[in-house]
Amino acid sequence: MSLKLFALSGVALVALAPPVAAQTKPASVATLIRSVDIPYQQFVLKNGLRVIVHTDRKAPVVAVSVWYDVGAKHEPQGKTGFAHLFEHLMFNGSENAPDDFFEPLKQVGATDFNGTTNQDRTNYFETVPTGALERALFLESDRMGYLLGAVTQAKLDEQRGVVQNEKRQGDNQPYGLTRYKITEGLFPATHPYGHDTIGSMADLDAASLQTVKDWFTGHYGPNNAVLVLAGDVDVATARRLAEKYFGAIKAGPKSVRPVAPVPTLTAPKAETIRDRVAAVMVSRNWAVPGLNDPDSSALDVVAGVLGGLDSSRFDNALVKKEKLAVSVSTYNGAGAQVGTFGIRAIVRPGVDPALVSQRIDAILADFLKNGPTADEVSRVATTRAAGVIGGLESVGGFGGKAVALAQGALFSDDPGFYKKRLERLAAQTPASVKAAADKWLGRPAYALTVEQGKRDAYAEAVVPPAVAVVAAPDTPFKGTRGAMPPVGALTGLTFPTVQRSRLSNGIELVYAQRNAVPITQLALSFDAGVAADVAGKLGTQGLTLAMMDEGTARMGSIALAEARERLAASIGGGSSNDRTTLNLSVPSANLRPAIDLFADVVRHPAFDEAELVRVRNQQLTGIAQELTSPGGLVGRVVPPLLYGAAYPYAKAQGGGDPKAVAALTRADLIAFQQAWLRPDKAKIFVVSDRPIVEVQAALEAGFGDWRPTGAAGVKDFAAPMQPATPKIVLVDRPDSPQSLIVGLIPTPLNGTQDLLPVATANDALGGGFLSRINMDLREARHWSYGASGGFQTAEHAAPYIITAPVQADKTGPALASARADVAAFLGPQPMTQAEFARAINGAINALPGSFETAGAVLGAMQRNDLYRRPDDYYGTITQRYRGLTLPQLNQTIRGAIDPQRTVWVVVGEAATVKPQLDSLGLPVEVVSATSLGVPVQPMAPAPVKAGK
């Protein structure tokens, strides 16, 4: 499992350690935590709006984050889902900005813009170029103070349908109903945390326009909000602009924090439900205190020791040693007032679930009796601290610095509470962790088991009676606040200079320096990928990668995991169609020992026979799970249809061929490793705060004397692609409240060509929220939570793929509508001048925000290399955007996409869906899910049952 471990940029940082050559011991968790600070200033407007400002000049962008003190816990009975529904409504325009909220944000190049709701709060956020800050504040203030005149019955109906499809999309996943059962099992229905954020479809259907407006009036005033500005802004500017745009909004009723005690079950409670899943899941669940309680940090450590670390107790015992489960995880989900603690185990097929339950209880009992070791506590704290710090590299988004400050202010009345949480984490001892575990996990648990079978009936699956779809009309522009502010001067992207060098054995090093963060990220990229998988033995590459970090010649899998954790290092692997990568991310203080460890993993994997049995069984279970998941089924059926069965990219069929995987041997994995994961096929990409000479010296020590063994593998792209003829392939997946529609259009393009014109043209067709496909299926018809289309770029191909999960009863009409959207765009209704301007302006203006993080730079470096683009490609792309013309884009995309060649794949319940598809004028081929890969019973050890 790969974690992104980044430190903070734009914050106060101290040196973590001496240069790598002098580094002898890993940096301690206390050292990591001491290195982090997010300086801020705050003030409160007369209307009660709390404003927090953090200055970070590393990029010419500002994160705007508005948090409202309203979430699901504030909803009374009969109004569940209202907070989340309003999150959607507040994107549909306000009185003085009546268009879709995304339109003006897209124009200015906003990145990371969205909104979310949970039990405790609703938030809206966007990162904008500095020159567009006033526009963002105008928009945020207009929907805070001037929204209700723009909320119409048509908009309410539209977003209610979108929300219901968001709910169906979650329900449609394997184990998708467990969230409801756990909430019901732990909390009384009258408890503020006793219902899920998404709410009840019945409550949403019953919501009247006036009821919804009253909800807004009671909760969304400035005195219930926190505004955070983080980035290229100072407090004087922030004060002036906050007063200008928010100062006139009147305060409203103050949210009252509900009384929400942590409930305790009077006795253990166990329930079993059935679902169409590949493996049984057993779980233990408790209600626990929220993040302000001192015990919450100790429970974070409990979760890590038991099931969060790669070397956790559950993983070591149940997965690696006893091989009773394919995976076990634990989590401590701390809300503002109450949280949940959960243990989840996926049972290995052939094992009695009762035995797994017994062993979970026994291991937990031993932990409660004896507590953790000091080393376990230290490893969890180090790993978690690095993970928390990593999420703060961005100024905004889902987990950046603005989020940390806003959450602290709203939940804990302290913007700096993130620091206290980290300090509490560092202060944990075996005794404090044991005490918290005794107090909270020694209570009765709610045990939920999910067995295989026909999914149990549930009320939320009922499709409401059909109603005529009425498009939401445009809201009149009131103009009471004047025109939307113009955009000021915008600063372009400064992409870091890329340097190239070579190790003594010829491996090329591609390097960029980012001085703001004491983190090194490294990708060891091999010219392999899915295309290199072994014909007739599909899954060989995946199993080889999975085994690479399961032990080396000098240390076993558990010792290796512990060594990674002590360094706060993440080592993982992945692959695309063209490349196989092994990745390292580590605080630069630990660079030299981490690279030594990484080199051992890469060069000396043990491929231990006992570990191979376990990991192979995990991969087989993963394949079986793919056959129960809409996305997993699509991943298996699409590649052969798109490329032809013999084409190298057609090998990308999920976890592979289960029969072949079951027969793979240690020799097969060694053969693949020696043929493909070798120095003459490798390049090393690095983004680090350390200079290239220092990084190269560490890499030279670890890899400089590495030599290839045997003949190198060869990929063969000589044969042309042979995509299927146009048709509809319907994958029968019973009990599906939604259908997943995927359209496959072969094109003559490939990734080494200049795809900027077609990619820019696609911005209007399927490339973003405002694209025609999404606005049609989501906003106009509200049949989907989100739909898109785009070019799936690889070195030798770039097909166009449409993706649209839709409610089951609208599958046929939705497919027809998507098909019509594409035909119109390529025919009588091409890209307009307004769409062209939005695409060009948005792309140029978004560049600084798009490359704010080291991870984004590292990805760009790899793409440029794969597609044979110059290293300064993104540094010069603005001029290329400005050279594009509207006729050029329309002509280019017409030449690339032929809608008459489309093959459609639909995953849904055939009994419901097939009659809708039969009238669309294409042959419909129905296949069962199991026909896409017959599950294979995992191999030895022999099946085991619980004793009586």
Write structural notes for this entry.
It is a single chain. By secondary structure, this protein is α+β, with helices and mostly antiparallel strands. 39% of the residues lie in helices and 17% in strands. It has 33 helices and 23 strands. The strands form 4 sheets. The protein has a 6-stranded mixed sheet, sandwiched between helices. A hairpin with a 5-residue loop joins strand 1 (41-44) and strand 2. The longest helix is centred in the N-terminal third of the chain and has 19 residues, at 153-171. It is globular, with a radius of gyration of 27 Å.
**Number of E-type strands:** 23
Structural class: alpha+beta
Distance between the termini: 36 Å
Number of alpha- plus pi-helical segments: 33
Overall geometric form: globular
Q: Order of strands across the biggest sheet?
A: 1-2-6-3-5-4
Task: Give the radius of gyration.
Answer: 27 Å
- Fraction of residues in H or I helices: 25-40%
List unreliable stretches of 5+ residues: 1-23, 936-944
Task: Summarize the biggest pleated sheet.
Answer: 6 strands, mixed
Give the overall average pLDDT: 91
Portion in strands: 15-25%
Give a topology summary.
Layout: H1 29-34, E1 41-44, E2 50-55, E3 61-68, H2 82-89, H3 102-107, E4 111-117, E5 122-129, H4 133-145, H5 153-171, H6 178-186, H7 201-206, H8 209-219, E6 225-231, H9 235-246, E7 269-275, E8 281-289, H10 295-308, H11 313-321, E9 325-334, E10 338-347, H12 353-370, H13 374-390, H14 401-412, H15 417-426, H16 430-441, E11 446-452, E12 498-502, E13 508-513, E14 519-526, H17 540-548, H18 557-566, E15 570-575, E16 580-587, H19 591-603, H20 609-626, H21 630-643, H22 658-663, H23 666-676, E17 682-688, H24 692-703, E18 728-732, E19 738-745, H25 756-765, H26 772-780, E20 788-791, E21 800-807, H27 811-826, H28 833-845, H29 847-850, H30 854-866, H31 877-882, H32 886-896, E22 903-908, H33 910-917, E23 924-928
Parallel strand pairs: 2-6, 7-11, 13-17, 18-22, 18-23
Antiparallel strand pairs: 1-2, 3-5, 3-6, 4-5, 8-10, 8-11, 9-10, 12-13, 14-16, 14-17, 15-16, 19-21, 19-22, 20-21
